[in-house]
Write a structure and sequence with these properties.
five-stranded antiparallel beta sheet, globular
């Protein structure tokens, strides 16, 4: 079953403007008033992927099942596809795209488009089998990366535009930089044209890439398994700066003028994106498993030894609250946000949270606020 790769907790890249206050300007945490507005029980086990847009959220819930809920947690439809879901959920104008794999078969998988309104299958296409498939869209073209295969297709029909083999594609799949696909492949970073699949540039690195991200102006941020973080400007051969951390880098997220980075040294760092200086860092009891930007001011971070995800002030690095789950409950995959709602899925339920209180409901009550303890 698909698990969101820890190097991208957002399974999406969110870049905000430079309107944030400078680090150290605000000595106290900017507390997050995050209210739990609703929950929906999952009887089939933990959800494995989330995607949301205004008015609804889609969940890969249990083996081969996709569920759609309204923004206030009411069920809209469910679709049982059989097998297991091995991809993220990609929302396009034409439907919900995903890859399912028949149980016990490894030779091929099935790329599907489901109707957002009903969950009915619109079209299917066989694609190479792999443990994990990554879906994304570039300039209206669908891209699927898995194992040693990169394939482009038309999202409305499933028609294949091109395909090519690239050995050892990084499990996180490609990112998009200036309209180009950038992917890790062993000790190489390759830029590929989404129009025809041709290699446009190739960068050799000393060690296999462990985490990477692209900036809004063609910057490339690379972290490796030894803890080296480097930033490159375009195709320049030498890094603008580099920084050494104490363990393999698992997450790299550009946010305005900051670079949020998580490492297996159990620290999360905020770094100046231009010069590489550390603005703040925070240690966790265990390995950091997910880092997600949930507002222009707040990160949500989960760690292996802590079942209550921590809300961190992006500017100061201080605790701004926690999300309290029941005993034994854990966040199964990274959260997603849409229209002001933060959606989370655990081993037993889907939750909808909102900053600054819930949308008024006809059955009364603003929802249950998250625990907001300050653990500086």
């Amino acid at each position: 079953m698909y698990r969101l790769p820890t190097i991208f907790c957002l399974c999406f890249l969110i870049v905000f403007g430079s309107h944030f206050p400078a680090a150290g300007q605000d000595g106290d945490a900017y507390e997050a008033d995050l209210a739990r507005c609703w929950s929906f029980a999952l009887n089939e086990g933990a959800g494995s992927a989330l995607a949301a847009e205004e008015g609804r959220v889609f969940i890969a819930a249990g083996p081969g099942r996709v569920l759609a809920l309204s923004a206030d947690g009411k069920p809209l439809w469910s679709a049982d596809l059989g097998g297991s879901i091995s991809s993220n959920l990609l929302l396009t104008s034409g439907g919900v795209l995903l890859v399912s794999s028949p149980s016990g078969q490894t030779g091929s998988s099935i790329l599907r488009s489901l109707s957002k309104e009903t969950g009915i299958t619109i079209w299917t296409k066989k694609v190479p089998g792999a443990p994990v498939h990554n879906l994304l869209s570039v300039n209206g073209t669908g891209i699927i990366a898995a194992g040693n295969s990169l394939l482009a297709f038309e999202p409305l029909t499933g028609a294949v535009a091109w395909s090519r083999d690239i050995s050892a594609i990084h499990p996180a799949g490609p990112v998009v930089s200036n309209g180009r696909l950038v992917l890790g492949s062993g000790e190489r970073v390759i830029s590929v044209s989404p129009e025809n699949g041709a290699t446009e540039s190739l960068r050799n690195v000393k060690r296999p890439v462990a985490a990477f991200a692209a900036g809004p102006y063609g910057e490339l941020f690379l972290g490796d398994e030894r803890g080296d973080l480097q930033t490159f400007a375009g195709t320049a051969p030498r890094p603008v700066w580099r920084f050494r951390m104490g363990g393999s880098i698992t997450s790299v997220i550009p946010v305005g003028g900051r670079l949020i980075t998580a490492s297996n040294d159990n620290f999360i760092y905020s770094m100046d994106v231009r010069k590489g200086g550390v603005e703040w860092k925070r240690r966790f009891a265990g390995r950091i498993t997910a880092v997600t930007l949930i507002s222009p001011r707040h990160l949500l971070v989960s760690a292996a030894e802590d079942t209550s995800p921590l809300i961190i002030d992006l500017v100061t690095g201080r605790s701004a609250g926690r999300i309290a789950f029941d005993d034994g409950e854990f966040m199964a995959t990274g959260p997603v946000t849409a229209d002001g709602t933060v959606y989370l899925v655990t081993g037993t339920a889907v939750y909808g949270y909102r900053l600054n209180g819930c949308v008024p409901k006809t059955d009364g009550g603003p929802g249950t606020p998250a625990t907001a303890t300050k653990n500086n």
